[in-house]
Structure formats: C-alpha cells, structure tokens
Amino acid sequence: MNSVMTPTGAFGFYAGLNLIAWFMVFCFVRETKQLTLEELDQVFSVPTSSYINHELTVWLPWFLKRYFLRKNIPKPPLILEKEEQVEKVLE
Length: 91
What we know:
By secondary structure, the chain is mainly alpha-helical. The protein has helices spanning 7-28, 37-45, 48-68, 79-90.
C-alpha cells in the first residue's frame, strides 16, 4: 500500500473504510441488550427495510442532536416499543 499511496492517502483510505463499516453496523445490527427471548423475537420479526427506515429517521437524528449538538434530549423508543404502541391503538 505504501508504494501506491502516501501515508496520508493510506490513512484517508482507512478512515473511509471505517466510516462505511460504521454506517453498515448502524443500519444492519439490531440492539439486543437486556431483551428477553420474546422481545428478541419481536426485534427480528421487523423487516429490514422498516428497521433501516427507523434507524435513519429516528435514531440518527437523535444521535446527531445528542452527541454533535450536545442537546440533552431523551432517547427515542425502540422499534419494538413503537410496534407495541401501534398494537394498542389498533385494539
């Protein structure tokens, strides 16, 4: 890699790959911390397109406001909590 790029170019290439990896983890890895087996079943029953839409429209704006703009705002609900609220409304 040193023969093809300068050290600055190699660092930029590495940084770019890290950004791509962060985006893929953010979009495709679901939160499973402290969830029961039933809740895990609900988490993984949500289609991937709905999950990515939820991540990009709810969690990403919260993350940017919380950590870049330093606003102290509450965490948004998880996607399974959102579905439970919808089920309650439908009943």
